[in-house]
Amino acid sequence: MNSRQRRGIILLLLSVLCAFGAFAGVLSVISDVNSKVGPEVTAYRVASDVAPYTPLKPGQFEKVSMPKRWLSPSAVTDLGAVEGKIAVTELRKGSLLQEDMFVARPRLESGQQEIAIMIDAATGVAGKIRPGNLVNIFATFAGKDDSQADQSRIIVANAKVIDVGELTALQPKKGERANRPTEAVPITFALNTADAQRVAYAESFAEHVRLALLPDGSPTTLRPGEGSYDLSEDKNK
To answer: 69, 104, 139: which is the final residue of a domain?
Structure first.
């Protein structure tokens, strides 16, 4: 073996050693990345914008994979969690689905029934009413003649809201007064039969039906005489 052949063999060995070194370096980098990233898990993100208080369905979300260590503890990894739930705020497209984005939809209790009425958006605590709230339902009635005063009544105290619909434009009906609201929101309540009848009557015959939002955990307790009001009560004080 001459000197040229020996140099060739040495260069070949050096090349092989360099290749092994580079391969070992790549393996080391991959191992380091895996140790920092960890295994991937399934999560879900919002496929398109979801309006507040909207019932949630699995089709509104898309599956994504991401490293487990980057996932927050409240991230949803099982879409079964959204069944029977509603969004508490607007869910933006691309947002990672979190447990604090939704709550259980209020359910009817024994003896209750659902009844929905249209509430003027301008006078019905627009934007603040949400499912699960308690409200007092007020109705104002015009006196039948000049001898009777106009009167405001609490027709249902502590009515439970179970659904809030979308803002809807109202079509004026023939013979309706000019100051009728032009936009309203459908609000669904869980009421017993007697209260449901009161609400239906008020929606048909009252001048206005309005809602008063109650603080959480603070239902109204009406004392005698507090269920109705007219201006003569202030004049007599």
So the answer is: 104
**Per-residue model confidence (pLDDT) at position 236:** 56
Based on the number of CB atoms within 10 Å of its own CB, is 230 exposed (0-12), middle (13-18) or buried (19 or more)?
Answer: middle
Distance of CA 190 to the CA centre of its chain: 18
Residues 100 and 120 in one domain: no
Tell me what the pLDDT averaged over the chain comes to. 79
- What's the rounded mean pLDDT across residues 119-123? 74
Domain span holding position 203: 113-232
15 inside domain? no
Q: What single-letter amino acid sits at 71?
A: L
Work out the pLDDT band at 61, boundaries 50, 70, 90: very high
Confidence category of residue 88, pLDDT binned at 50, 70, 90 = confident
125 and 69 both lie in a single domain: no
Alpha carbons 86 and 88: distance in angstroms, whole number: 6
Contact 61, 79 (CB under 8 A): yes
Regarding whether 119 and 100 lie in a shared domain, the answer is no
Statement: residue 64 has pLDDT above 60: yes
Give 61's contacts (C-beta < 8 A, 6+ positions apart). Answer: 44, 45, 46, 47, 79, 82, 97
118 and 100 in a common domain: no
Which percentage of the chain shows pLDDT scores above 70? Answer: 72
* Beta-carbon contacts of residue 214 (< 8 Å; ≥ 6 apart): 133, 134, 135, 136, 158, 220
Which residue has tokens 């604090």?
100
C-alpha span between 75 and 98 (Å, rounded): 4
- The size of the chain, in residues, is 237
